[in-house]
Amino acid sequence: MKRTAGVIFRTIILLLVGVMIGQVLNKDFAARNLGFSFVSNSKIAKVLQLVDRNYVDSVNIDSIEGVSVNNLLQNLDPHSLYLPQQQAQSINERLDGGFNGIGIEYQLLRDTLIITQVYAGGPAEKAGLLVGSKVINVDDKKFSGSKLTASRINGVFRGEKDAEIKLSVVPPLSKDLKILMVKRGHVDLSSVDAVYMADANTGYIKISKFSATTDLDFRKALTALKVDGMNKLLLDLRGNGGGYLNAATSLADEFLADGKLIVYTKGIHEPRTDYFATDSGMFQKGKLTVLIDEYSASASEILAGALQDLDRATIVGRRSFGKGLVQQQFAFDDGSAVNLTVARYYTPSGRSIQKSYKNGVDSYRNELAQRMQKGELFSEQSNLNDSVFKGTPSFHTSSGRKVFSGGGIMPDVFVPADTSKFTPLIQDLSQQQLFTAYVVDRQQQLLKKYPTEAEFLTQYAVSNDEVDKFILYASQTIKEMDSHEVQISREPIKTILKAQAARFKWGDNAYFKVINTDDVTFKKGLEQ
After folding, report:
1. Per the UniProt record, which residue ranges are transmembrane (predicted)?
2. Is residue 392 assigned to a domain?
3. What is the distance between the alpha carbons of residues 45 and 262, in angstroms, rounded to a whole number?
């Protein structure tokens, strides 16, 4: 179960945090059972002991210890960091491909939990819980209107496997209370957000992360597309912050011939390790296009870099994030952990795509915002003129094409960002979850008119009148809206409203079918 705004358009800072914190594990390194300990007479240990025993006020030593460790690590590089127990658990569950829970997504509206997604095959679906249901009571105790928090909700729905939860819910478009018994179980988290035929010959697969199940998820998706007649693949890695290194190499193996070097890693304490393709790939011959953007990082860049260096795919979009460091996770007894950078990775041509962090963590975190200010999201030449590429060694693909190092993967085909989709108003509406709230409050009756996804996608269009109603609805939360922003945001608002309605009833596939119809990068990818 995860809480989601269900939106593509997020702010730069929120996405940067996701790249920095949520996607830094390396399965190969993390799998090793390496013990470690701090020297008991170190200055850090002594100072903490002094504070604990002698400080004038009571203090939370665990909290101070975590902050101290994190500050130390952040002085090394931006991706070495301390993870509190809950954060470490959340990251590991996401990348391990599942957790114990009931399998829902939700939104809080007026202090009431409303189900916005029910995972196929999960405990909630098996119990008959429907999208749009309002959860009123849990185990005969008041739940709705009880000052709900994300922490409390997680405590209720996640936890011990096979434990039963009694839910009193009001089903969608109903006023009657219904009792459901839901037994917690393992909930699978797929790496594949969407898979469908984009046209008669082209299959589309969007991968959101590189987890323990990514290759299996991909092979299932690819098999389904081949049945539908696919001979060309559009692989969407936009917004994918990475994950396990060996998940990236396994996916690269699906496209590359036996013996091809995919990536290599090395560090002072880590000898060079080479990762090669095998002869087991399911798509070694077909035409391949990969979509990336400034939020494609780490494992995404390993895959895109290998396919670019080996001339196996056309890379379309904008310059990727620029993370070429490999982390190993060291766990503490209390469930917290340290992610420590232990190696760098290099693409087959020998290039490192790690952007500089010599000016400190704050400068590093602001780098994406600086790209926008310098116009790099809107001009290919602005990217090439950037100092990150000046003075760096020259690298070339297998066929001799020049490629760049030192600041992410530069695409073969540049697509500028669409500014109309990134207005402050769009970002505010998304952050406040107002698109999904509007679907829940105002569009459920509308969705009843369309029995199938295909009918909804082909027959329904958001009218100007509907946009006006949505803006009026949103103004109850966002009190001041710039009239010019409202005007230039009207078309993107139409697309997002339709996409969120489609997702509410038919899931992520339907959502991306709508979003991609108005997506310039997607359309450019289809042309390759």
Report:
1. 7-25
2. yes
3. 42
Give the structural domain span for 152.
98-188
Answer whether residue 51 is part of any domain. Answer: no
What one-character-per-residue DSSP string does 218-284 give? HHHHHHHHHHTT--EEEEE-TT---B-HHHHHHHHHTTS-TT-EEEEEE-SSS--EEEE--S--S-S
CA 134 from centroid of its chain's CA atoms: 27
| Number of folded domains that form the chain | 3
CATH number assigned to the domain comprising residue 129: 2.30.42.10
Reading the block at residue 464, the tokens are 């100007």
Contact 25, 329 (CB under 8 A): yes
Tokens at residue 215, please? 């290759």
Asked whether residue 245 falls in the same domain as residue 314, the answer is yes
Q: Are residues 155 and 297 in the same domain?
A: no
How much is the pTM? Answer: 0.89
Q: Are both 132 and 164 inside the same structural domain?
A: yes
Structure tokens at 13: 């800072």
Final residue of a domain: which of 143, 162, 188? Answer: 188
List of E strands, 293-336: 314-317, 325-331
- Same structural domain for residues 383 and 424? no
The DSSP element (H or E) to which 288 belongs, if any, is: strand 287-292
In this structure, are 124 and 239 located in the same domain? Answer: no
Nearest to 249 by CA among 324, 194, 301: 301
Write down how long the chain is: 528
What's the alpha-carbon Rg for the chain, to the nearest Å? Answer: 24
CA–CA distance, 211 with 217 (Å, rounded to integer): 10
> Amino acid letter at 477?
T
**How far apart (Å, rounded) are the C-alpha atoms in residues 51 and 346?**
44
Q: In the beta sheet, which residues pair with residue 205?
A: 195, 235
Please say which residue of 163, 188, 213 terminates a domain: 188
Same-domain status, 305 and 452: no
pLDDT, one tens digit per residue, over 39-90 is: 555 787 888 888 888 888 888 888 888 888 888 899 999 999 999 998 888 8
386 with 454, same domain: the answer is no
The verdict on 253 and 386 lying in the same domain is yes
Measured distance CA(312)–CA(331) in Å, rounded: 38
Q: Give pLDDT tens digits for 315-339.
A: 999 999 999 999 999 998 889 999 9
Q: Coil, strand or helix: which one is 146?
A: coil
CA 39 → CA 36, 44, 80, 198, distances in Å? 10, 9, 20, 58
Q: Report the C-alpha gap between 356 and 363 in whole angstroms.
A: 10
CA dist 23 and 295 (Å) reads 11
Q: Where does 52-160 show beta strands of DSSP type E?
A: 81-83, 98-101, 104-109, 112-118, 134-138, 141-142
DSSP bridge partners of 186:
100
Contacts of 52 (CB under 8 A, 6+ apart): 59, 61
CA distance 411 to 424: 27
